[in-house]
Amino acid sequence: MAAIELRNVTKKFATADGGTYTAIKDLSLTVEEGQFCAVVGPTGCGKSTTLTLVSGLERPSRGEALVHGEPVRGIDIETGFVFQQDAVFPWRSVLDNVAAGPVYRGAGRSEATRLARDWLRRVGLSGFEDRYPHQLSGGMRKRVALAQSLINQPRVLLMDEPFSALDVQTRAIMSTELLQLWDQTKPAVVFVTHDLEEAIALADKVVVITAGPGTVKAEFEIDLPRPRVVQEIRFQPAFTRIYEQVWEALRAEVAEAYARTTRVAELAS
Amino acid sequence: MAAIELRNVTKKFATADGGTYTAIKDLSLTVEEGQFCAVVGPTGCGKSTTLTLVSGLERPSRGEALVHGEPVRGIDIETGFVFQQDAVFPWRSVLDNVAAGPVYRGAGRSEATRLARDWLRRVGLSGFEDRYPHQLSGGMRKRVALAQSLINQPRVLLMDEPFSALDVQTRAIMSTELLQLWDQTKPAVVFVTHDLEEAIALADKVVVITAGPGTVKAEFEIDLPRPRVVQEIRFQPAFTRIYEQVWEALRAEVAEAYARTTRVAELAS
Amino acid sequence: ANNAAGVQSSSSKPAANAPTVTIMVGGMSKQIYLPFMLAKELGYYEKAGVNVNLIDEPAGGDATQNMLAGQVQGVGGFYDHNIALQAQGKSSEAVVSMLQIPGEVELCRSDLKGKVTSPADFKGLSLGITDTGSSTDFLTQYLTKKAGVDPAATTRRGVGAGQTFIAAMKQKAIACGMTTEPTVSQALSDKTAFILLDMRTAAGSKAALGGTYPATSLYMQTEWVNSHKDTVQKLVNAYVSTLTWIQGHTPAEIADKMPADYYKGVGKPAYIHALTSEKGIFNPTGLMPEDGPKTCLAVLGEFNPKVQGKSIDLTKTYTNEFVSAATPVS
Amino acid sequence: MTDLHTPVTPSAHPAPLGTPPDEVQPAEAKSGMAAARRRRVVMAGLRVGIVAVLLVTWQLCVNAKLVDPFFWGEPSGVWASLRDWVTIGTPQGSLGDQILVTLEEAVLGFAVGSVLGVVCGIALGRVRLLAELFGPFLKAANSIPRIILGSIFTVAFGFGIQSKVILAVVLVFFGVFFNAFQGAREVDRNLIANARLLGASRWRVTRDVVLPSAFTWILASLHISFGFALIGALVGEILGANRGLGLLIRSSQNNFDMNGVLAGMVLVAVIALTAEALITLLERRLLRWRPPQTHGGAAVE
Amino acid sequence: MTDLHTPVTPSAHPAPLGTPPDEVQPAEAKSGMAAARRRRVVMAGLRVGIVAVLLVTWQLCVNAKLVDPFFWGEPSGVWASLRDWVTIGTPQGSLGDQILVTLEEAVLGFAVGSVLGVVCGIALGRVRLLAELFGPFLKAANSIPRIILGSIFTVAFGFGIQSKVILAVVLVFFGVFFNAFQGAREVDRNLIANARLLGASRWRVTRDVVLPSAFTWILASLHISFGFALIGALVGEILGANRGLGLLIRSSQNNFDMNGVLAGMVLVAVIALTAEALITLLERRLLRWRPPQTHGGAAVE
Ligand SMILES: Nc1ncnc2c1ncn2[C@@H]1O[C@H](COP(=O)(O)OP(=O)(O)OP(=O)(O)O)[C@@H](O)[C@H]1O
Ligand SMILES: Nc1ncnc2c1ncn2[C@@H]1O[C@H](COP(=O)(O)OP(=O)(O)OP(=O)(O)O)[C@@H](O)[C@H]1O
Ligand SMILES: [Mg+2]
Ligand SMILES: [Mg+2]
Fold first, then answer.
1. Do residue E40 and residue E157 come from a single domain?
2. Which ligand 2 atom lies nearest to the CA of residue A134?
3. Higher pLDDT, residue C260 or E120
């Protein structure tokens, strides 16, 4: 039984004039138990929308979303979600933000704090425990969100560009942390990113979404050996080969998306 | 006369207990008229803070910020600012958001709309003119912000990770657009990014900021020939050489920053 | 001012095991309600062996409603409410009548002097009353009707008393209006108005209304009266003694007894002057005047929609039993 | 109160060019709208049901002599009063006239009061000096009982429509003012900074950023303010008038006619609800740009 | 009204580990605080100045017989009334007693009313069914004049503290309710979603996300609500009481003593401003987590 299964899902948004806008269309996707799946695609193609369907935040207009074989009916606390936009609680200190999950899941106050401190250390925020989110830099807030979600060790982990505000180095460190965690608890991961190298370095499978109403254009199994060292893997020849394949698929979509919205075809490289 | 000059600026934030936190310290930076300056540094090192000082949104605790030789006293409309966080107006349609600048600067309604449509095409958002920001994806909102700022052709352009939510391809297209614009009007640019390749590909000068209270660690003149083709430049040997130099400087800072906040030195690679 | 505070606090000290009665008065500082506070200031409640808790209440029907709801036991107000209540199936009665004439004055704006000489000229005018549905409302309509003018041809406007009444005159919002002392003196003193009808004297009132018109009285629910005859008797004793005391003293002496804040706004001389001009309104005995209830019924029966067409047993609206049996307290 | 009937489906705008036309007409969207309509009807039915149950219980209590209609009125009496007013007219003239008089006062007071409140609120919210100077005075003024103000106003402004309108203005003003003030201060700093950098003058910032962003606050206060304007008008009438619903209520009260009092209140409530519906319409128009609110997003709950 | 004296420097928290200790004690921060203090003193001075100018003008107008003190009172008379009340006592007993009585009613009404308002507002803001069912009733109820309610309350609850407290509760309730309701609906969907995903029950979401995020709304309404509670207590006293500031004002009014009325109002205003200052303190504590507001960020302006 697959951990995550999307069966021909379509998501439409109603428009004011009574029409609809189709964000994703007939998208099918399967993520096995313990599989790390990266999703790439042009901006605005429906990646975030796909994640909201899996998490139960939105319902498909058509088709079905299943998690562990059960249709998604609402929010499931076995699912972790790192949002693309800020979603940390502005009225809680960094520590309390990260400790929220364990507390909600019934851990004692002190146990939760201990865990939270540990996670803050892992994301490199020791010493900022007492800050409020508005006192952090963009990258720091993103890391708080990461720790907040990872601390719960969810069985299904959805991440929407989690490393986008981080510098290369921190990003590499976070990736290594993420892979370690994933190795320990083996959740099913859907990881949305714009960084193809990152996608290939981390994932078992890379899914390319088409422009326009998003649907799956191609899936690539990444058979690079594990454990991987994120900083080094990109220099392997196998990596380069895969990279080029995926890039080919992606490039066409991005060009298509851009051409469409500029109506100037020659601009798209 | 330099377009932008920071003279030993220090920025402290007051803390609740009466103490202060020093975000940047004795930072000096000069950007010449028409120069494209990229700023890199570990997350939380004070890059965004630096931009707020140049734009007049905040005042230095010590030292001086000058633009075109004049001390910065407040917001200057000759300065364009692309914020790290969303700052588009949620109650305006995409078109009205982009047209805001020209209208504020006295252009007629129809002239402003014409300009805005042109800019929306350039950032690949034709067809989305009537949407409200909440109906856009993260990357689309970022592009609205870009167009909103670039349409004014400011003499000083401050950009805080403007391409962070974009896929590689769109990012490349946007970079090319940006370089074209820059070439036409030659503003002084300060461009904050986490992508070292991007920094080198675009800039005349790359500034590396230190961890902790940010200060300038090193400056690198990028003497690659212009016009540059962003997608191709990374394969030039000169590029690789510069990359390695800058990377060396940056890597140490990132490692330092991370080690400090995790207090586990060996984790920092 | 301190004598007022002092006297009050000492007199409100509860006498041991004396019954306590709460009385709501429809405008305590109006001179037509003067006996209630005077009795307190004279210490007559205490001497009569009853604790009285006076609550002030602005004009209107609320006092009565509160009595019926059991929130207060007695009301210091116009007798005619008893008639209105009977019309609605509630029984209450006046146990002592303090005013045999209304003490109201119909004032008219000075610039109308000569133009308005009697209620017969009210046609088309705007007439001030304290509040819609109040006794001044019915009295005004009665006077109008009696002078042969259809009340519907006039406009009646609730303007309250005091500043608001005088302001209404000055702003020409009303041509004439019915009010009591000390508003009357105040309006006369700066020549804002002249007196059209003076119902502060028995003669004037008879001429205007065609009979006595019992106004201020203490009324209570019949049921309560019957079950607390002792207490009622004590109360009535206090009031009859007060009424007697008023007859034996000059306006200045009366004013001396009243709390200073009662004349703070208009000044003591004006207060005394007002009292002088209407001292005759006070009922020397406390007995209900013979023809009084009839006049009231005539007024209400015509203009109060709730009384119109109802048959009223006037004897149930008052009793002289307690006044007749009253013994002076001092 | 915003939009108790948020449509279930979030609103969006015309499909952009490049999106293939939707071949299948979205049956779901339609059925969603039908469901929303059905829900609305059910809700209205439930509300009517609640009212009916209350009224019947009340009437039964009166009939069983558990409740004294002299104090509390009775539904049949209220109905009779209303019928009389409609068919025969009120003691002060036709019912329509009374309603119109009160409505005129309330609407005027509402308009003036809310405009003043918004202008002052935004001004004080934007200009720190003003807020520091006049804030305490406004707060002190807010604690003065309006009845007393009412009688001062009648002295100052006479017994015409003026004093009632001013009373309504005063009642409306404070609620709107304090919300507009707070709304102006809640504006995202980044948005203001952005507008300034784009070249907006301080006045444009106020108009284009502060006002729209304070709009939720202002609208929230407008929802209750029409009720306040009505109260102002009614109280003004009670304190000195010869027409209007307030006088109708007051004279019923003075005649011990509880049913009349309640009938008057029913009329007032109907007016208030109508006005509320209009404000909600306005709100929907003005806040089109917003993402659907939490209530609507059933899934999130 | 929030925090008219936002400190100029935004607040932050203890410097994190790893930051080198600040050798130089930040002179700017200190001088900033001194400047803020100076500003505060100047402002207070200006406010006092405004009051003084108004009072003197008024007194001069009275002396020049341009203003009739019978209608409008005069500062010297108001002062005399206040002095008498303080030194000799009021006709109803010592001034302190009157203030305490009114204060007790207002505080009780405020507490009960705001708790009820917050609870109902959040509940209706969170549960759509409740909002749709009861929303219209609350809106209708909001349009009922409180004076009429007041006299019904005295009939029902007597002349004790009860009827005043209930009147205050009613006045406070609506303002708080509507703001809490709106605040609960303004909550960022993402935050609710995040909390749910982190494992929060609906109740925890309400407590940990909806409530704090509606807090600005609730606090904004609390700022005016104490004024309302005072009004409720005063009106209740005016409608029937034998103690309290309301009675003091009312009996001054009945005695045509405008100075007494104004003196009473001055006392009420002083109480309201004190309460307001306390609420502002509470607000500062509860909203510590917020970035400094627009007023404070002078640079942005
Ligand atoms: N509430 C909405 N109403 C209308 N259209 C919407 C709404 N939400 C999203 N969309 C549209 O759906 C499409 C997909 O959006 P989505 O956020 O899933 O893109 P994305 O792939 O995550 O892009 P990015 O990489 O930029 O974050 C976009 O065209 C967007 O404009
Ligand atoms: N208002 C504030 N109060 C206290 N500290 C603050 C405040 N704003 C920023 N800081 C601190 O200042 C430091 C620099 O922040 P800044 O936003 O400039 O970083 P940055 O270099 O832009 O980081 P990123 O790349 O993550 O965006 C951070 O440590 C941050 O926590
Ligand atoms: Mg996205
Ligand atoms: Mg930053």
1. no
2. 1
3. E120
